[in-house]
Each structure stands twice: as C-alpha cells, then as structure tokens.
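Pipeline run #58 for the internal structure catalog. This entry was flagged by the ingest filter as a single-chain record with no existing model, so it goes straight to prediction. Upstream metadata was stripped on purpose; only the residue string is passed forward. Reviewer on rotation: M.T. Logging verbosity set to normal.
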Amino acid sequence: QCMRIARDKPANFLLISGDDLMTVALYAIGAKGVISVLANAWPLVFKKIKEFAFAGNYEKASREIFKILDMNPLMYEEGNPVGLKALLQDMQLCTGTVRLPLATASESLHKRISAIGKGQKNKG
C-alpha cells in the first residue's frame, strides 16, 4: 500500500511513516518523516536515521533502526502508550502512569523494557 501511495502521490503530498520499524524502508521510497513512538525516548536515533537515509546511506540508517528492533514490540504488548511510559519512567523523564482504561505496565513487561533500555544506553 505504501509503495502504491509513493508511486501515485501528487508532488505536494508528504508520505510519512507511521511504523517505527518501516521508517528506513519508507524513506527509501520517498517518505519525508515519521510519526514515531520510540523517537519520544530515543530522538537522536531517529535523527540519525533520517540524516543517513536522506544522504542515501541506507546501510548506516539501517544500523540505527536495528537499535530499536528488540524494544519496538514491547511498546505495544500491553497497549500504546503503556510500554513507552514504562521506558520513559526508566529514563526518569516521566511517571509510568497512564489514563484509564489502560493500566501501568505489568512487572514482567517493565523488567523486559528495563533490560533492553539499559542495553540501549550503550548504543547511543
């Protein structure tokens, strides 16, 4: 579907990724941005992805997107923004509180997010 949109879009239409893991692929076919979940936690990773992709260096852009690969599914496991709020809490940027009908991340999910998040600190 995205490829058809990219092929058929008018010149003034901005194709934007809505899936963090598809961002590099969509940049390769003409996307101009991303509405991202994990960019809230790791904006520099997404900045590098965009800079590398727009410079035509998809190898480096891919290396950056691979940094979020293991964390990405955890963001949605108990509903968005539950996972993100847990990650941001670990980063001491906010609390893990979410509005009803959602509940804060389960202990199991939070532990997995924390473990991957600690590893990410060493990746930039």
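catalog note: The mean pLDDT is 95.
catalog note: Strands lie at 16-17, 33-34.
status: ready for reviewer M.T.
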